[in-house]
Amino acid sequence: MSKLFVFDHPLIQHKLTYIRDKNTGTKEFRELVDEVASLMAFEVTRDLPLEEIETETPVAVAKTKVLSGKKLGLIPILRAGLGMVDGILKLIPAAKVGHIGLYRDPETLQPVEYYAKLPSDIEERDFFVLDPMLATGGSAAEAIASLKKRGAKNIRLLCIIAAPEGVEFVQKAHPDVDIYVAALDEKLNDHGYIVPGLGDAGDRLFGTK
Ligand code: URA
Fold first, then answer.
1. What does the cofactor field's note say (predicted)?
2. Pocket test for ligand 1, best of 134, 181, 193, 209 (most atoms within 8 A of CB)
3. Which residues are catalytic?
4. 123: confidence class by pLDDT, cuts 50, 70, 90
């Protein structure tokens, strides 16, 4: 079974409070999501492998470390996932960014992919799938399946807020994919919103409604 990590770093928790606040406007909401995504990237990359190299400082040769594992790819799920990209790229500027768009079929209620543009070297990368809200888990599970179908092996899911229903759904569908969140909330309501959540992340990021 995949693992669920809830990041309890004080800076993440502090910023999350203002992300949740209904009085936070679009500009500040966007900035806070960006900052939380950076902080989450810092935490989620803790276990990346390193190798030792020698570096000449102005004084002597130092044994130093550089990242040695696979290159990284970020996959925001359209559209709210876009809000997390820049914050992560600030720390991992060499990551490539693919996009996956899904809509819900009104009859089957299943997510259907309408757009996918992914890095061409999928086998050579590890992936972070990004979606601020893990609600039912349907979109995230479908996006992960789509990546796997194209050859991705090592995938992590990064969300700001998750509902228990979404975590369970993704864990069942993808027991190999660990999930990283800033908060695990109470439940989904009848409209599919996370409670207490933050409302519609896409609308709040882009000022639509
Ligand atoms: N998507 C959102 O943006 N918010 C929710 O609460 C659930 C899904």
1. Binds 1 Mg(2+) ion per subunit. The magnesium is bound as Mg-PRPP.
2. 193
3. 104, 108, 200, 203
4. very high
